[in-house]
Structures are given as C-alpha cells and as structure tokens.
Design a protein that fits this description.
This protein has one domain (about 5-255). Strand 3 and strand 4 form a beta hairpin. It has helices at about 5-15, 35-45, 65-80, 90-110, 145-155, 185-200, 215-220, 230-240, 240-245, and strands spanning about 45-50, 55-60, 135-140, 140-145, 205, 210-215, 255. The longest helix is centred in the middle third of the chain and has 23 residues, at about 90-110. It is globular, with a radius of gyration of 18 Å. Helix 3 runs antiparallel to helix 4 and helix 4 packs antiparallel against helix 5 (about 145-155). By secondary structure, it is mainly alpha-helical.
C-alpha cells in the first residue's frame, strides 16, 4: 500500500539532474531512424484514451501473453541499438519510449498492484519503488529508470517538457502518449503534452481562491524556474481559458497534490 512515509521520502529524495557524460555522444549527421512500430501497436491495443476523467488508462489486465513477449522483444531490440551513433532528436525519442515501455513492463511483471510504489525492488535501505533498480543494459552499461531520467534526459536536453513525456503509471502523472515519440513528432508532442497536463486538474486547478498544482512542480522545481514564481510563469505559458485568466494576477502560495494510484481502468 502507498503510505505517507513513502510519499514524504520521495519528496525528499527526488533526484537532481546529474549528467552522465558518455551519453552526450551523438552523430549530428546521422539520418538513421528507429522503428517503434510494435510500441505503436501496443499503445493502440491497450491504452484507453476515452475515459471521462481525461486520464488515459492502460488495460494491464487484458495484455496477452504474446504481447508481453513482444514487448520484451521490443525493449531488447532498443537496448541492442548503437544509440550513440544516432542524432540528438532520435536519441531523445528513443530514451522516452524506452522509459515508458520499461515502466509498462514493470507493472505487467508485478500485476496486480495498486501502485508502482508497491514494486519495491530498488537496492539500498533508503530506496523504495522500482526507480533505482538496474533494468536494462544499453551500450554495455546497466541502467535504471532514474539513470534514464536524471542522468540522461534531464541534464542533456534541459527541457522541462520532458516531465510531461515520461510516464510513471500513476493517475497523477501526465498521460502516456498514444503514439510513440519520434524525431519528427517530438517537438509537437512535447508541446501537446505540456498543454494537456497543465490544463487538466492533475496539473493545476483553483479551489476556494487557492492554486493547487501537481507535486511534479515541487519535486522538480529547479526545472521550472527554481521557485514557485517560476512554476507560475511556466503554467502561464501553457494555460488556457479560465485557468489562464486566474493565473494572471495570482500571488498566493501553491498547494501540491498527486495520486500514485495505478493508471488502470
């Protein structure tokens, strides 16, 4: 079960972006692309995008044994690619898709669970959840989800919209994108993800004159301007309608909310 101690620990332990320099290598002349066809098919089969809540759900319970095997094959194929020989945008799409596919695989391997926090496989006494467990080897290096997010994606690209792209299989996190990321659609997909999340109550909403936002903006405040004023400035960039109007003159503090409940139907 997800407890308040776990949540408090996550707030204190949200990793900083610390560059792993080897992953900066790329080929700016490369025109190679990566085939994410199976990931596209998997999302089409199992990602439910019509829930009235606006939250996309993953039908974990209906994933067939065959598709679980094919998902493992897809992840294995990604891990075998000489990713450092690709262009920078192709690499970004690769790491996002790999992160999301690994997260889905984790849930499927431990299903049924109420929350990803219940998958307590990270090494170390003060670790919890699955994020520090080494799940895959790429270019001869074993990597965890935290390695991908905080040692590769965040420090190399320095793009806070990536927080809307990677999915933690929880109701509180941004929706899992219904199509794979590619070097071609990356920019548009990141923009779409930012607008969708911020304009959904999971991202930001007003109640009784006070502004509540996702804990993502608290855990990774350094990526959103370094303080609450910076967070509000970021929200203004993507907010629309009534939310945008109310943000214009808001000078109050922020309340933070998040649900770790599994994003299953």
């Amino acid at each position: 079960m997800v407890g308040t101690l776990c949540l408090a620990s996550f707030v204190l332990a949200a990793p900083n972006a610390e560059l792993w320099p080897r992953w900066q290598q790329h080929d700016p002349e490369s025109r190679q692309t990566i085939d994410h066809q199976f990931w596209a098919l998997f999302l089409k089969r199992y990602l439910q995008t019509n829930d009235p809540s606006g939250i996309f759900r993953v039908a974990y319970q209906t994933v067939t044994k065959e598709d679980k095997i094919l998902l493992s094959d897809y992840i294995r194929e990604l891990s075998s690619l000489p990713i450092l020989e690709y262009g920078l945008q192709e690499q970004a799409a690769y790491w996002i898709n790999l992160y999301n596919a690994l997260t889905i695989q984790l849930i499927l391997d431990h299903f049924p669970v109420e929350s990803i926090l219940d998958i307590d496989i990270s090494p170390g006494f003060f670790s919890f959840g699955p994020w520090d467990a080494k799940l895959i080897s790429v270019d001869g290096v074993e990597l965890s989800l935290n390695d991908i997010e905080h040692r590769i994606l965040r420090p190399i690209w320095k793009d806070n919209r990536f927080h809307y792209a990677i999915n933690c299989a929880s109701l509180g996190c941004p929706n899992l994108a219904p199509v794979p990321y590619t070097s071609v659609n990356l920019e548009a997909a990141l923009e779409r993800g930012a607008r969708a999340y911020i304009n959904h109550p999971r991202g930001a909403f007003f109640k009784d004159g006070e502004l509540s936002v996702s804990k993502i903006f608290n855990w990774f405040e350094e990526d959103f301007g370094g303080d609450e004023a910076g967070v509000i400035t970021h929200l203004k960039k993507y907010a629309s309608g009534n939310l945008a109007d109310r943000l214009q003159d808001y000078r109050g503090e922020l309340n933070y909310e998040y649900s770790w409940k599994l994003n299953a139907p």
